[in-house]
């Protein structure tokens, strides 16, 4: 056991054990730092595991929490408020995953450590913690994002001393984390390379590409050449560099090389492992980042044991160091790790904050209210209406926009449609869909939809988003439901230029009440504006790969092509108010 030292944090003394070596079953050791109070007694322990580096997490003791758009916000300081954990009389154990930081071993590929499941290492780590003299044998876990995903991996292995977990902002289906509707998202690059507000992984020379470990140099050369046939990839300098020099960014190389869903992602998909989890699980996620809301709901519906789902309010990015949700987390662990009956399990399983009304809706299932899926149609003069268009395309001519590549322009073209001001509070909770009839003049493009709540003075808040790469338009009809489409993303089918196709975008889960006087505004583009009221709250790299070719889009919304949104109305059914249609 390494010698302990006592440090001063705020007004309290904290005992720290630095650089402890935690043995894995194959002989590899992981590095850990341990923090607890000065009284010599065993306590419940909260374990945090990631590849981001335990030394980075220690900044929680000295750095005031930062919110975006602060330039000091660092997305990788996610292990929690160390001083608060100690003050609540827990032991905080922060470890480096295999192959990262000060730990031994190799980390090959995403969620795969040298051929060893990260859950297996987590099992061994947790059981080691439970045997230490400063732990009373009751172990939970702590941390958001990657740390949250590690909790699911650990729980699926069923270590005997892991009594409960509290997951905030985790990432689960890693394909859906990186390719939204088939469109590559750059935020995972930031977390690995250390760009745009992220320190990135605590890289060592033992973090390796699974692709490079699996295929011969000749095979890799052929696969890289094939990937560069995508003009979106070929137009982006960072990706060209990565594909030619993969040794610098092995984990990101693997993700870029696997643009379709399939076995590479599914074998380490935490959702697939969740059926093994039988301990209590609390899932917390804030609105504004739809793919993570989606993942939390999918995980919640998969779990069989005691569980909670808490969907919080906007904005989408928590502080770094992470301090939010600690009150709720300690209440959860007080019940499950300390045996104090505080009534937390007497409360409804699902809690949803509704934007607009600022009401919290509770229930035992998601969605928390009955949903009336209702179409809202795109109409001429950029209107949205409950009534479909009666004229044909020769009279209700299509809307459209031309987008030049961002290599030759800074302007992102956006077309929008809006309702008239709502006359009554109108609540929507759930997923949605956008059925768009579009003609494009290229074999592929992106379709990016953003839905806003616009107040009378013009102030807007993002409500939900939808993404679809046109070549990924194929639907799984068996898994697709009204208002909830499912795309398998297992193959790309080029679009035939000049042909009108129906594209169905999945609108990520949301909860919002449109107040009287407010409008719903729906925007469509094939790239994203780099800065606006929403994106300013996200790290600089939180945007999607732009389209690398010039594309003309025609959006048909006539009697033969009923382009529409299908929305989850839950209160004030549309029939009870005037049709949300009117002059802009």
UniProtKB/TrEMBL annotation:
Domain Xaa-Pro dipeptidyl-peptidase C-terminal: 330-566
InterPro entries, sorted: AB_hydrolase_fold, CocE/Ser_esterase, Galactose-bd-like_sf, Xaa-Pro-like_dom, Xaa-Pro_dipept_C, Xaa-Pro_dipeptidyl-ppase/CocE
MF term (GO), any: hydrolase activity
Keywords per UniProt: Hydrolase
Nucleotide-binding is among the record's keywords: no
UniProt keyword annotation of Ligase present: no
Family matches, as SUPFAM superfamilies: alpha/beta-Hydrolases, Galactose-binding domain-like
Protein name per the record: CocE/NonD family hydrolase
Organism field: Intrasporangium calvum
């Amino acid at each position: 056991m390494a010698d302990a030292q006592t440090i001063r944090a705020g007004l309290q003394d904290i005992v720290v054990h630095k650089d402890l070596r935690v043995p894995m079953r194959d002989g590899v050791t992981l590095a850990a730092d341990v923090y607890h109070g000065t009284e010599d007694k065993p306590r419940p322990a909260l374990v945090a595991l990631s590849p981001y580096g335990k030394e980075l997490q220690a900044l929680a003791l000295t750095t005031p929490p930062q919110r975006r758009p602060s330039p000091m916000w660092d997305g990788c300081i996610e292990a929690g408020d160390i001083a608060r954990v100690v003050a609540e009389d827990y032991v905080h154990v922060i470890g480096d995953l295999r192959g990262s930081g000060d730990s031994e071993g190799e980390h090959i590929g995403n969620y795969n450590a040298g051929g060893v499941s990260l859950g297996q290492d987590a099992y061994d780590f947790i059981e080691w913690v439970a045997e230490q003299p400063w732990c009373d044998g009751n172990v939970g876990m702590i941390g958001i994002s990657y740390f949250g995903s590690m909790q699911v991996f650990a729980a699926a292995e069923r270590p005997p001393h892991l009594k409960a977990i509290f997951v905030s902002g985790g990432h689960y289906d890693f394909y859906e984390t990186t390719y939204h509707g088939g469109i590559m998202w750059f935020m995972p690059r930031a977390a690995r390379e250390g760009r745009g507000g992220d320190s990135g992984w605590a890289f060592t020379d033992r973090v390796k590409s699974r692709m490079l470990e699996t295929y011969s140099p000749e095979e890799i050369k052929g696969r890289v050449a094939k990937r560069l046939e995508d003009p979106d990839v070929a137009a982006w300098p960072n990706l060209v560099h990565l594909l030619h020099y993969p040794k610098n960014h092995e984990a990101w190389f693997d993700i870029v090389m696997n643009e379709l869903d399939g076995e590479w992602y599914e074998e380490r998909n935490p959702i697939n492992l969740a059926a093994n989890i039988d301990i209590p699980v609390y899932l917390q996620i804030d609105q504004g980042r739809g793919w993570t809301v989606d993942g939390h709901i999918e995980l919640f519906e998969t779990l069989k044991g005691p569980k909670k789902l808490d969907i919080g309010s906007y904005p989408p990015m928590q502080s770094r160091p992470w301090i939010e949700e600690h009150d709720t987390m300690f209440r959860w662990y007080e019940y499950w790790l300390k045996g104090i009956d505080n009534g937390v399990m007497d409360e409804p399983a699902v809690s949803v904050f509704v934007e607009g009304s600022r009401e919290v809706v509770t229930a035992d299932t998601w969605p928390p209210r009955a949903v009336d899926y209702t179409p809202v149609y795109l109409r001429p003069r950029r209107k949205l209406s409950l009534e479909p268009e009666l004229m044909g395309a020769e009279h209700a001519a299509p809307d459209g926009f031309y987008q030049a590549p961002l290599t030759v322009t800074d302007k992102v073209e956006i077309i929008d449609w809006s309702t008239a001001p709502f006359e009554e509070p109108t609540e929507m909770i759930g997923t949605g869909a956008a059925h768009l009839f579009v003609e494009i003049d290229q074999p592929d493009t992106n379709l990016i939809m953003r839905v806003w709540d616009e107040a009378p003075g013009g102030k807007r808040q993002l409500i939900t988003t939808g993404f679809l790469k046109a070549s990924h338009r194929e639907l799984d009809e068996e898994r697709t439901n009204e208002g909830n489409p499912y795309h398998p993303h297992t193959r790309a089918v080029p679009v035939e230029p000049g042909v009108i196709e129906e594209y169905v975008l999945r609108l990520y889960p949301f909860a919002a009440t449109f107040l009287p006087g407010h409008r719903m505004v729906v925007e469509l583009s094939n790239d994203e504006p780099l800065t606006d009221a929403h994106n300013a709250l996200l790290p600089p790299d939180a945007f999607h790969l732009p389209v690398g070719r010039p594309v003309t889009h025609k959006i048909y919304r006539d009697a033969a092509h009923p382009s529409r949104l299908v929305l989850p109305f839950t209160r004030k059914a549309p029939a009870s108010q005037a049709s949300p249609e009117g002059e802009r």
